[in-house]
Design goal:
Largest sheet: 7 strands, mixed
Structural class: alpha/beta
Bound molecules: nickel (II) ion, manganese (II) ion
Shape: globular
Distance between the termini: 6 Å
CATH superfamily: Ribonuclease Z/Hydroxyacylglutathione hydrolase-like
CATH class: Alpha Beta
Length: about 230
């Protein structure tokens, strides 16, 4: 079984049975609610990014430089990483495309959100934001990234075991729309993300669990909590 560790906001670490380590959307040093800093990651195999906003890419370049991990992201973010941040190992992809990595398959899914890439010299690298559908040790994880509720999510029905869904509202879908996403996707387990980090995205995870009711099991993780997939 793979293990999932939540590091606050939208940052999630996945550790496969064979020890392969993946990290998604690291926002650590500037997030007072994160449980670790960027230097916690001294060994990492892959770093995956959903989109280019600061609260998702913040610590990426430092972690990639130090660990030599392979970046998996959209073509534009990979171009920026290679041309402006000196990232050596990267695998560009794009929305709708999947690829079989040694640890399992990654597919980029549509997300409805902003496309700016944050960082020095990043002006020319606007991208489309994505979600991540990751198959690891026969478990299917969907990290929605930052997104509105979209009817595209119906295409994920039957393809997701554990869904990481934003519930913060304001910048992404809020709790009510996350429930509608669950009705479309029908995952077994839902882990709420992207809430409480800033004042405008404060939410009550317990109320969200009540809203979801019997539609799925809601697992609420605090920063540093881990969960067996
Ligand atoms: Ni964003
Ligand atoms: Mn965000």
């Amino acid at each position: 079984m793979a293990r999932l560790i939540f590091h606050g906001h939208a940052c999630v670490e996945l550790i496969a049975e064979d020890g392969t380590r993946l990290l998604i959307d690291p926002f650590l040093s500037d997030n007072p609610l994160a449980d670790v800093a960027a230097d916690h990651f001294d060994r990492l195999d892959y770093l995956l990014l959903t989109h280019g906003h600061f609260d998702h890419v913040a610590d990426s370049w430092e972690i990639l430089q130090r660990t030599g991990a392979t970046l998996i992201a959209t073509f534009e973010i990979v171009s920026y990483a290679q041309e402006r941040q000196g990232v050596a190992s990267a695998h560009p992809m794009h929305i709708g495309g999947g690829y079989d990595f040694p640890f399992g398959r990654v597919k980029l899914t549509p997300a409805l959100h902003g496309g700016q890439v944050a960082g020095e010299g990043a002006e020319g690298y606007t991208t489309f934001p994505a979600g991540l559908l990751i198959a690891i040790d026969d478990h299917r994880v969907y990290h929605a990234g930052d997104t509105a509720l979209t009817t595209d999510m119906t295409l994920l029905r039957g393809q997701v075991d554990t869904a990481l869904l934003p519930i913060g509202d304001n910048f992404t879908m809020g709790p009510e729309d996350a429930v509608r996403a669950i009705e479309m996707i029908e995952p077994s387990v839902v882990i709420p993300i992207h809430y409480d980090t800033f004042d405008v995205i404060r939410q009550d995870a317990g109320s969200f669990r009540e809203l979801v009711g019997g539609r799925a099991e809601v697992v609420v993780l605090g920063a540093g909590d881990s969960y067996e997939l």
